[in-house]
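About this split. The held-out portion is used to measure sequence recovery: a designer receives only the structure tokens and must propose an amino acid at every position. Recovery is the fraction of positions where the proposal matches the reference. Here is one held-out target exactly as it appears in the evaluation file.
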């Protein structure tokens, strides 16, 4: 299974949250500066100001049962894969970067309510 799980960096997470709730999205995690919404079969994560991340940017992330293998398949012959720790202790994610500047993130599938 693969689930789309983008992260939107915004100076206005509360306003984005109001829009998402008005569209019948369900809040599954809500903390200061960080919220996760169930959006159909995927999730959308809103993040406030974070050093190194441009406000208004959206990172394309996916979650899957075998994240490391999926990152390798996505990178293919032209991309590069970098492993890094995620916020959840002991959990790793994989950044896949391409020569033209495109980026995608792959991480382990989390339960539907997170």
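Reference sequence for scoring:
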């Amino acid at each position: 299974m693969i689930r789309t799980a983008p992260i939107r960096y915004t100076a206005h997470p509360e306003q984005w949250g109001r829009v998402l709730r008005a569209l019948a999205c369900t809040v599954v995690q809500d903390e200061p500066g960080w919220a996760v919404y169930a959006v159909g079969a995927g999730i959308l994560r809103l993040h406030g100001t974070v050093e190194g991340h441009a406000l208004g940017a959206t990172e394309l992330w996916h979650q899957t049962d075998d994240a490391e293998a999926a990152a390798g398949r996505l990178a293919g012959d032209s991309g590069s894969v970098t492993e890094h720790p995620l916020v959840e202790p002991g959990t790793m994610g994989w950044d896949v970067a391409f020569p033209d500047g495109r980026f995608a993130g792959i991480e382990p599938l989390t339960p539907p309510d997170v």
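Annotator remark: The helical segments are 13-22, 67-75.
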